[in-house]
Design a protein that fits this description.
By secondary structure, the chain is α/β, with parallel strands linked by helices. The chain folds into two domains: about 130 residues, 3-Layer(aba) Sandwich (Rossmann fold), CATH 3.40.50; about 90 residues, Arc Repressor Mutant, subunit A (Orthogonal Bundle), CATH 1.10.10.10. The strands form three sheets. A five-stranded parallel beta sheet has the order 2-1-3-4-5, with helices on both faces. A three-stranded antiparallel beta sheet has the order 6-7-8, covered by helices on one side. Helix 2 crosses helix 6, helix 3 packs parallel to helix 4 and helix 7 crosses helix 9. It is elongated, with a radius of gyration of 20 Å.
Length: about 240
């Protein structure tokens, strides 16, 4: 009698995988996540992370940067080769190069130690809400991108885009809310892999913003993240 509701409810809990080599910290974060209504599991060795992810694909990964066996950036790089599962990186290393590299490899967020477990839960909740919303409304109804016809429209108004601008918009729209570094965007802009400066991205972003503004005055869905890059957020 009492087991049926539990069995029905548990599979709906979002599963968070914690990859962290500090047992007390991992246990504390796990307790807060479970108190927040999530399912949480833990691995302490970097070499165990990818097998654990493949065994039971989590809804989100909390990934420490400094791990025994294998570092977090290397794990994130391999993870992105087969999955878009959200990743929040945890680290005591606050150098800008680490932050840039982590985001470039596809991390969705970045939290520096020491941190509040409540903050971690809040970040997890925000990212999972965004992912669910994106899944319910693929591509966002305000922005339509048709790869077959190489066309796009914003709030129903066709956009006259160059091939490079189209690829730029498609890259940003494929992961709304995710920050892309200039280098990462450059990788997707030119099919001939020509050598250009990262300021080339700024120029294309400026032109793309102008065309989006012309289509929907007062709307600027492209956000600049100082020192990092750009992301797309459509209300």
């Amino acid at each position: 009698m009492h087991s049926t509701p539990t069995d029905n409810r548990i599979p709906t809990l979002a599963h968070i995988l914690i990859v962290e080599d500090e047992p007390k910290l991992a246990a504390l974060v796990g307790d807060y996540l479970r108190a927040g209504g999530y399912d949480a599991s833990w691995v302490a060795d970097g070499r165990e992370a990818i097998p654990a992810i493949k065994a039971k694909l989590p809804d989100l990964v909390l990934l420490d940067l400094m791990l025994p066996g294998r570092d977090g950036l290397d794990i994130c790089r391999e993870l992105r080769s087969f999955s878009d599962v959200p990743v929040i990186m945890l680290t005591a290393r606050v150098e800008e190069i680490d932050r840039l590299l982590g985001l470039e490899l596809g991390a969705d967020d970045y939290i520096c130690k020491p941190f509040s477990p409540r903050e971690v839960v809040a970040r997890v909740k925000t990212i999972l809400r965004r992912v669910r919303h994106s899944g319910e409304q693929p591509g966002n109804p305000a922005l339509r991108i048709d790869e077959a016809t190489h066309s796009a429209a914003f709030h129903g108004v066709p956009l006259e885009l160059t091939p490079v601008e189209f690829r730029l918009l498609k890259t940003l729209a494929a992961n709304p809310g995710r920050v892309f570094s200039r280098d990462r965007l450059l990788d997707n802009l030119y099919l001939d892999h020509r050598v250009v400066t990262d300021r080339t991205v700024d120029s294309h972003i400026k032109n793309l913003r102008r065309k989006l503004e012309q289509a929907a005055p007062g709307q600027d869905p492209i956000r600049s993240i100082y020192g990092v890059g750009y992301k797309l957020e459509i209300e």
